[in-house]
Design brief:
The protein is built from 12 helices and 13 strands. The chain is an alpha+beta fold. It folds into 3 domains: 111 residues, Trigger factor ribosome-binding domain (Alpha-Beta Plaits); 177 residues, Trigger factor, domain 2 (Orthogonal Bundle), CATH 1.10.3120; 95 residues, Chitinase A, domain 3 (Roll). Strands 7, 8, 9, 10 and 11 form a 5-stranded antiparallel β-sheet that branches. The chain has a 4-stranded antiparallel β-sheet with strand order 1-2-4-3. A hairpin with an 8-residue loop joins β3 and β4. α1 packs across α2, α6 crosses α11 and α7 packs across α8. The longest helix has 35 residues. The chain starts with a strand and ends with a helix.
Length: 435
């Protein structure tokens, strides 16, 4: 039963719970008798162990299990009775012994979900990112595809950006060659950032047969630990300079890009479709970010500390997984400050509660037809769309991920209809980070 419900802070509450000792003892006795039927001990046949020995061996564990079960059941009943929405795990502690041998008293302290209160949406300004895909972007992308399939031909001139140079080099630190600092017939394309800037600068402008000696300072975070932060002297000798030869925009090239009939126009159409899909994805992401910033401003409520702590733990775990994926050793031993993810965790929890409330208030759940349309659109970028759709629909977890995306999209669209929307026009290059 519940003796009382008290409020410690706006979101923190305490329930005082009392459990019947007789009821607990009866359940313990019931479980002990069940265990006794199959209990095994040296010198006794299974099921013939004296109850006193069964009690000594299993009694404390079973009593603890029964107590925890009874506390959990009672707490759940009282939470439902008081119409409380618990956020996080309750902290349950035994109360002071008042001499009542027929009851055990505990206090359960926990937080509840807040009441989300919204202000005037019409006072919020939201940016909607708009980008056009013109013929120029299509042609530029087609040229990139051609460059990716370029061949190289010898030239008798100084090396320039986009040329492929083949050279020999020897690197020394304090006059001594170091591991990995010597190579023959080494090739790379100038201007692609494949080598450190000093190395590229030294090769640029040299012709086949020419040599150059220069200093190169390795960055402190260079992957080669033996040379990181040190300065080496390199001597390079250019053996060959080759310039790129782009394939002609022909039927053969179109077929090499997956266009079965070799139509160059069809290739351009595919490029445009892919660019529009990428632009749509990026502009939606930017608009969504602006909407979420607006929602944070228009909603007021306290955020449960338990949810922030849980989200902080999750973000820290992801950070460690990322470090491990990057090859860092002993990531579990790295101490990550508690406040490193606190602000991000608080924002994520706050937005989650806001979105959840808007979905409930305005019926913004993902509809079946939205889910199918979303999956169909995603599948079109693959060689076999039918297989991709089957992959989604055969797994409930994958569908749930899709529904979560659509749900947020619905919230964004609803919010755009309630707020002051300002178009933020960007060029294609600005959106793609080329400027």
């Amino acid at each position: 039963m519940t003796e009382n419900t008290s409020t410690v802070s706006p979101l923190e509450k305490t329930l005082s719970l009392k459990l019947s000792v007789d009821k607990i003892n009866a359940e313990v006795d019931k479980r002990l008798k069940k265990v006794a039927k199959t209990a095994k001990m040296p010198g006794f046949r299974p099921g013939k162990v004296p109850m006193k020995m069964v009690l000594q061996s299993y009694g404390p564990q079973i009593h603890s299990e029964v107590l925890n079960d009874e506390l959990g059941r009672t707490f759940s009943e009282e939470v439902q009775k008081n119409d409380l929405r618990v956020a996080g795990t309750p902290r349950i502690e035994a109360s002071k012994d008042d001499g009542n041998e027929s009851e055990l008293e505990f206090s359960a302290t926990f937080e509840v979900f807040p009441e989300v209160k919204f202000g005037d949406f019409s006072t919020i300004e939201v940016e909607k990112t708009v980008v056009e895909v013109s013929d120029a972007e299509v042609e530029k992308t087609v040229d990139i595809l051609r460059k990716q399939r370029a061949t190289f031909a010898d030239v008798d001139r100084a090396a320039a950006d986009e040329d492929k140079v083949t050279l020999d080099f020897v690197g020394k630190i304090d006059g001594v060659a170091f591991d990995g600092g010597t190579a023959s017939d080494f090739s790379f394309v100038l201007g692609k950032g494949q080598m450190l800037p000093e190395f590229e600068a030294a090769a640029r402008g040299l012709k086949a047969g020419e040599s150059k000696t220069f200093d190169l300072s390795f960055p402190e975070d260079y992957h080669g630990k033996d040379v990181a932060g040190k300065t080496a002297q390199f001597e390079i000798t250019i053996k060959k300079v080759e310039e790129p030869k782009l394939p002609e925009l022909t039927e053969e090239f179109a077929k090499s890009m997956g266009i079965e009939d070799g139509s160059v126009d069809k290739l351009r159409e595919d490029v445009r479709t892919n660019l529009i899909r990428e632009v749509s994805s990026r502009t939606k992401a930017q608009t969504k970010e602006s909407v979420m910033n607006g929602l944070v401003k228009v909603a007021e409520f306290d955020v449960p500390k338990a949810l922030i702590e849980s989200e902080t733990t999750e973000l820290a775990a992801r950070a460690r997984q990322d470090l491990k994926a990057r090859g860092m050793q002993n990531v579990e031993e790295i101490k990550l400050p508690d406040d490193l993810f606190a602000a991000q965790a608080e924002r994520r929890v706050r937005l989650g509660l806001i979105v959840s409330e808007l979905v409930k208030l305005h019926s913004l759940q993902a509809k079946p037809e939205q889910v199918r349309a979303f999956i169909e659109e995603q599948a079109q970028s693959y060689e076999n769309p039918a297989e991709v759709m089957q992959w989604y629909f055969q797994d409930r977890a994958r569908l749930a991920d899709v529904e979560a995306v659509i749900l947020e999209d619905n919230v964004v669209e609803w919010t755009l209809g309630q707020t002051k929307v300002v178009e933020k026009k960007l060029s294609f290059d600005e959106l793609m980070g080329n400027k």
